[in-house]
Amino acid sequence: MTDLRVEFAGLKLKNPIVAGGGPLAGTVDHIKKCVDAGFGAIVTKTVAYLKYIQRWPRPRYLLVDYKKKANDPYYVPDDYTWLHREHNSVYPPESFAKIIKEAAPYAKEHDCAIIGSINGRGLDEWVKMAKMYEEAGCSALEINFCCPFPPVELVEKPEDAFMGIAFTLEPEKGVKIIETLKNTVQIPLFAKLNPDGQDFEGMAEMFKDAGVDGLTMFANNRLMRVDIETGEPTNWGPCAGTGPAFKGHSIACIARVARTAGLPLMGGRGATTWQDGIEFMMAGANAVQYCSPIMLRGLSYVKELIRGMEGYMERRRYSNPQEFVGKALKTVYSTKEIIAKTKALYSTVDLKKCVGCGRCAEVCFYDVIEMHRKPKFYADRCVGCTLCKQVCPVDAIEMKERDNDLDHFKAYISAHPEWAAEDIKKGQF
C-alpha cells in the first residue's frame, strides 16, 4: 500500500505535490479549487507593499517552441519555454491576508497546507507581512528571494528596488531578514532562491545558520528569445522564464545543496510530469512545486500527477516517498571518484539486429566505424563515449568494459600515436 505523505521542516503533507506561487492561488476561490484538485500544499501568489509590484507589468504569457496538434487540442509538447511578465498580487498584503484567512479553514479541513509567499523591502515590511500571514492561518512562509526582478528605473529610492532576486544576489542581506522573521513567527520559513545566483551551497549554509527551515529552488530566471522573422525580442526583451529545458540545472543545484546543507528542499522550475517529480526527489527535494504545467493542462492534471506517482511507487515497491528522497545522491561522484569507480568502455555491434542504417557511423568522431553494407567496428579505436549506442534505432550496439586503461588510452591516441605524450606511451596515466 503506497502512502504519499511526506514530513519535513515541521510540515506534514498528504503528498509532495505543491502548487507553486502564482495565479493558481491568487483568490479565495482559486485557493479552494487548488485544495479540491488534491495538492499537498499551496503556495499563494506573492504579495508586496510596493505599488508598482502590485500593478505592473501587465500579465503577458508567451509560449516559445510550443508545438500544437490540430487534432488534439489538449496536447502539450514535452519541450517549450514559458516566458512571462506578471506582477505580484494586485491586492495589498492586508487584503491578501483576509483571502488566506477565509480560505484557510477549507484547506485545513481537506488536509492541505497553505504556504504564504511574501516579498518585502525593509525589515518592517517583512515583519508586518509575516505576522499577518501567520495569524491568517498559514502553515509556513515562503520568503521570496527569487522574484520579482527589481524595478530599479521606476523607484526614487534605491532601497525600494532591493527586492526579490536582490536577496539571492546579495545573500548576506537575506540573512538579516531570516534572523528577524525567525524571531517573529513560529511557523517554518522557506527561502525561495533565484537560479541566477551563485554558490548555492554557501548561500544555503548562510541561511541555515540564520535559522531558515528550508529552501525553494527555484521559480524563474531572466531569459530572452528573438523572433528571427521580425528581428525583435519576444515579450519586449529579457523577462522571467521557465520550462522543461531548465529541469537539469534545477536538479543539479538541488543535489549540490542536498549533499552539503542538510536542509529540507522544495524543487521547482522545470518539473512538468510526475516522472520529473520523482527525479527531483531522488536528487534531494522533499516536495516539488508545479505552476505553469498546471496552468497549461488545468487543475485536473494534479490528480494525474498523484496517480502517476502512486503507480510508480507500487511498481517499484516503495511504501512512502522518503524511501527514495535523495537516492541519487549516493552515486553522485566527484571527478576523482569517477576515475576510480568507473571503467573504460568500447562498443560492439550485433549484426543480426543491425539494419545497416549508418546512423552510428554518422555520429562517431573517433573513426571507430566503417560502413559497408553494415558497419564494421574497430574496438582498438573506440574511446567508449556511448553515443553510437544511444542513437541506434534498433538497439544493436552494446558497450563492454575494457580490461585495462592502457587499451583505452591507445584508442585515444590511435590517430597520431607518434605525437602522444610520453607518459601515455609508457602506460603511465
Could you characterize the architecture of this molecule?
The protein has 429 residues and is of the alpha/beta class. It folds into 2 domains: 6-331, Aldolase class I (TIM Barrel, Alpha-Beta Barrel), CATH 3.20.20; 343-425, Alpha-Beta Plaits (2-Layer Sandwich), CATH 3.30.70.20. It is 34% helix and 17% strand. It is built from 16 helices and 20 strands. It has helices at residues 28-37, 51-55, 93-109, 123-136, 166-169, 171-182, 200-210, 247-260, 274-282, 292-297, 301-316, 335-341, 359-363, 387-391, 405-412, 422-425; strands spanning 6-8, 11-13, 17-19, 41-43, 60-64, 81-85, 113-118, 140-144, 189-192, 214-217, 221-223, 226-227, 232-233, 239-242, 265-267, 287-290, 345-349, 369-371, 375-377, 397-401. It has an 8-stranded parallel beta barrel with strand order 3-4-7-8-9-10-15-16, surrounded by 8 helices. The chain has a 4-stranded antiparallel β-sheet with strand order 5-6-14-11, with no helix packed on it. A two-stranded antiparallel ribbon has the order 1-2. The longest helix has 17 residues, at 93-109. It starts with 5 loop residues before the first strand and ends with a helix.
Number of strands: 20
- Please name the fourth-level CATH homologous superfamily of the largest domain: Aldolase class I
Shape: elongated
- CATH architectural arrangement of the largest domain: Alpha-Beta Barrel
Unreliable stretches:
none
Number of domains: 2
Distance between the termini: 52 Å
Counting helices, strands and paired strands, the structural category is alpha/beta
CATH topology group of the largest domain: TIM Barrel
Main sheet record: 8 strands, parallel, barrel
